[in-house]
Amino acid sequence: MKKTRNTPAKAAIVKVLSESHQALSHAEILEKTQQVCDRVTVYRILDRLLTSDIIHKTVTAEGVVKYAFCRHEAHHDHNHVHFNCTRCQKTECLSLPIPEFKLPHAYTVHDMNFTLTGVCPECQVV
Ligand SMILES: [Zn+2]
Ligand SMILES: [Zn+2]
């Protein structure tokens, strides 16, 4: 297999995620980048972007993994709340910090996934 660095593919994925105001699933990312990437490439690049802190992931109540671009604002924190709309299935990053939990002694948290499920502003019935 050729050892390419998947630059056009990586650029396409970063572009899709940075221009999206919501978190996208692997399938949604693939759909938008299929001219330049295949399934495996998308997985590999997403993994690389996750390790380099360019994107982060969140899991919806249905267990769908979604990826979101890290907006480097005042302070960079992946531990923010995600909102999953049950009507349009959209997952958004909310700039709300996850509450601190007082864990029993000897528990160490490495990762937190805090997803609220409900109805987003666009789907509210007036
Ligand atoms: Zn919605
Ligand atoms: Zn997020």
Structure description:
This protein has 126 residues and is of the alpha+beta class. The protein has a single domain, classed as Orthogonal Bundle (Arc Repressor Mutant, subunit A), CATH 1.10.10. Helix content is 27%, strand content 23%. A three-stranded antiparallel β-sheet has the order 1-3-2. A hairpin with a 5-residue loop joins strand 2 and strand 3. Helix 1 crosses helix 3. The protein starts with 6 loop residues before the first helix and ends in an 8-residue tail after the last strand. The model has no long low-confidence stretch (mean pLDDT 87). One zinc ion binds next to strand 2 and strand 4.
Characteristic key phrases:
Arc Repressor Mutant, subunit A, binds zinc ion, globular, 6 strands, alpha+beta
Portion in helices? 25-40%
Number of domain modules? 1
Instruction: Specify the oligomeric state.
Output: single chain
Largest sheet: 3 strands, antiparallel
CA-based shape: globular
Q: What order do the SSEs take from the amino end to the carboxyl end, as H and E?
A: HEHHEEEEE
- Classify the fold: give the CATH topology: Arc Repressor Mutant, subunit A
Name of the level-1 CATH class: Mainly Alpha
Ligands in the structure? zinc ion
Looking at CATH, the homologous superfamily is: Winged helix-like DNA-binding domain superfamily/Winged helix DNA-binding domain
Strand content: 15-25%
Radius of gyration over all CA atoms, rounded: 16 Å
N/C terminus separation: 56 Å
- Order of strands across the biggest sheet? 1-3-2
